[in-house]
Structure formats: structure tokens, C-alpha cells
Amino acid sequence: MKLLRLCGTILILGFNIPAIAAEQNISDDDIREMMIRDSIASYPGNCPCPYNRASNGSRCGKRSAWSRAGGYAPLCYDADISIEIVEKFRKMGDLIVPKKN
Q: Is residue 99 assigned to a domain?
């Protein structure tokens, strides 16, 4: 189920990140960081990820969207984004961006 939600997130974010990647020679980690930042920014509530803070200042923890099944599935950690997904972004629209060494 998380994979299905991740695919939806990729579709939403996928139109922005490859364009950025085309303009710069960015690393896999940079792409992951942008994806996570965009995913969190697009979440409509206060608790997209366990490490975020709720409106009362407490940590979201298990109340976060990431921790709950169904509904939103924000990208919160590097491990949420496989190398295959990063490579798909690099190749979208026949675009191949060289990796940094």
C-alpha cells in the first residue's frame, strides 16, 4: 500500500524535480532531499512525518501521516526513496543527468 501511495507522490513531484535535475548536476541525495522537502510542503496538515511537531509543540510520532496506513503517504526519510525511483527521475522524458562523483 505504501508503494502505491509513493507512486502517487512521484506523479505529483515528478514534474518538478526532473526539470531541476536537468539544470544542475545534482546527486542522488540531493534529489531525495528535494523530494522529501516537496512532499512535506505539499502535505495539508501539521504532522506529515514522525519527526515534525504538532500544533501543540509535541512530536507527531505515531500520529503522523507517514506512520498511519491509508490516506497521505509523505516521503519523510531517504529510505522511502529507492535508487530506482531516483533513476526514473533522471530518465523522465528521455532526460539523463550525469551523476556527481
A: no
The pLDDT-based confidence of 55 (bands split at 50, 70, 90) is very high
pTM (2 decimals)?
A: 0.67
Domain count, the chain: 1
Q: Is residue 58 part of a domain?
A: no
Provide the residue count of the chain: 101
Does the residue 13 lie in any domain?
Answer: yes
Question: What pLDDT sits at residue 58?
Answer: 96
- Give 31's contacts (C-beta < 8 A, 6+ positions apart): 17, 21, 81, 86, 89, 90
**51: which 3 cell numbers?**
519527526
Find the radius of gyration of the CA atoms of the chain.
Answer: 14
